[in-house]
Amino acid sequence: MGFIPGLLGILPLVAAFLCAAPVAYADDAPQEASGYRLGKGLHLGDSGLWLGGYANLQVEDLKSTSWQAQLNDLSLFVGWERGRWRFFSEFEIGDALEAGNGQALTTHQGYFNLERLYLDCGVASAFNVRFGKFLTPIGRWNQIHAAPLVWTTSTPLIVNGPFAMHTSGGMAYGNFEAFERLWGYSVYGGGRNQFDFKSADASSDDNYQDPLGFRLFQDAPGLYQIGVSYAHYSERNFHAGVKNLLGLDAFWTRKRYELSGEFIYRFGTGLNNREFDARDGSGSLWGLYVQGVAPVLGDLYAIARYEAFQREGAGSAGSLWLAGLAYRPRPAVVFKAEYRFADYADKNPHTPIFGGFTEGFAASVAVLF
Known about the structure:
16-stranded antiparallel barrel; 19 strands; Porin; 2 helices; mainly beta
């Protein structure tokens, strides 16, 4: 890990720069004031237009590969609101800069992607409609996955592979009160991902098509949230066929402590809509994660996460443990460091989906502009 001491040596300089610069939340909610406000982005007069974005610098030193450093997320938000109409877009340059053991700094791996592009029409708090490309409303993590908004450099495996991160289509969503509780819902459907500039081989979204699903959650803002999700879609590669996914998610917070988790169970048919061949192992997929966050000293937090995952065709589940620290000198700036320990039968890092269980060290710096 010869690169890590050098990286840690420059982090104080990066911290000084980021903490001196104005930052903004990645919030596509409407804003009232014009001009630039710390934590609220740049608002262009009374035009309804606003700008934001985020960047993420990441380094990994994993057991299966040599160390690698990347500016792997550089995103620009463009939003607009007028009356009941709201537009939001996110343009991303992925892997803009990359360096590694024996590899000079390069931009050859960079790509452009349209992460989100949608138009909302607000009819009432209980009913709104959205058309375009948006984050698939399965669980919590996928909908708040931007690097400055989450506690770890790595993403739980159940968010990375079993379903599409984005949906291109339409969605109805809203909030309502029932049984003296606040509830929220999303009902959505779509087709193929028509707004992805990456090749089909490089896009995980392109592996899935024709989604139809919903999420229902009970919300107590600032205290807890409990949700349930269902999705029906087709998978094109790996274990191709029609899939059904059931999900549960929960979140609790108090006095800067957090506890969150998600569980998914996916089942369906295999290639050519045949039932999965029992000789290939289990025909279903399941996984979960549980994550805890605790304040340590001032703006320093400790993070621990446990994951379990079993893909179709695997004889047994794999487990992963994560221990890390996160430092937030400002709400929109976060420094992260973590180490992952894995235990699973198939330790080939190139195995589809199980590659996310690679052991090793990871660190990152993320900022919202």
